[in-house]
Amino acid sequence: MDIIAILSVAIATSTPLVFACIGETITERSGVINLSAEGTILLSAMTGFAVAKTTEGLGTIPSLLLGFVSAALVGAVVALVVAFGALSLRQSQVAIGFVLALLCADLSSFLGNPYVRIPGPTVPSFKLPLLQDIPVVGRLLFQSDWLVYASFALIILVWVYFYRTRPGLMLRAMGEQPAAAFARGTNVILMRYCYTLLGGALMGIAGAAFSLDFKAGWSHRHTAGYGWIALAIVIFGSWNPLRVALSCYLFGILQSLASQAQNAIPVPTQVITVAPFALMILFLVLTSSEWLERLLKQLPPSLSRAAAQTIHSTPPAALGQAFEQD
């Protein structure tokens, strides 16, 4: 078993999830819950593929760019509906997101019917000169495509923005204590709109990444399940961009191992396919259980505190709560 090959495949297949999860992390850190991820990713995947296929005559690169831009716009529009209902109308964020998830999923099947199982443009691979020759690391990280490299840059930029800039501090403050952020001069409602739209656009890019790269093409329920797993990964990653990204790669490794196991374990294919989803949810349940709390208490105090900080997922204090500016 080639470990480097498994890890490189895991990184590549995790890239769409990285975009989706980082987008949801930005949104939730600002205090807004966008549960439309499942529908947003599906509708964006369909739109990105349809636009890229329709404009294929312009050339591969222009058609792909148009596909990703259109997918990002779809994600932003869906997020705008969530933001308007949650921030302006002050309705339940959970209810709005859930309804939009169902609506967008059905729309993707209805509107995408003409594009089912037909070939279309895909993101070309690009090996970075010099970097690809670095032992182990080069093969692992620098023999992919531009989308993978963009995901690496996104992780770094968002982490630096969150923890090394004043606007990032205000973003986190809006999710923890919006009244304090407002008192410091931040227009909480406006900025929550902005961050929700940005998060939605990244989810849209994730959808296009599925249909134009990872799972090239379009079919009904093409990315079914990945929106829900993205929401779980954000929780599992404790709303920290770096931990969220690592959780995405963990999920990718589970998928890669499951694919390898299909040839070695005599069980139905469906079991292997859903195993990564089940294991990720199991990890999430275990890290939130009272049993784990009791186990941590048996450890030395210093080790117990360090383990608790690493494992526990504490959501932003004002997540999902309406805020009224005077």
Entry summary:
With 326 residues, the chain is mainly alpha-helical. The protein contains 14 helices and no strands.
What does this structure look like?
The protein is an all-alpha fold. About 70% of the residues lie in helices and about 0% in strands. It has 14 helices and no strands. The chain has helices spanning about 5-30, 35-55, 60-90, 95-110, 135-140, 145-165, 165-175, 180-185, 190-215, 225-235, 240-260, 270-285, 290-295, 300-310. The longest helix is centred in the first third of the chain and has 29 residues, at about 60-90. The chain is globular and about 55 Å long. The model has no long low-confidence stretch (mean pLDDT about 85).
**Approximately what portion of the residues adopt beta-strand conformation?**
under 5%
The percentage helix is over 70%
Shape: globular
Distance between the termini: 62 Å
Order of helices and strands: HHHHHHHHHHHHHH
Specify Rg, calculated over alpha carbons: 20 Å
Please state the average pLDDT score.
87
Counting helices, strands and paired strands, the structural category is mainly alpha
Q: How many helical stretches?
A: 14
| DSSP E strands, number | 0
Q: List low-pLDDT spans.
A: none
Main sheet record: none
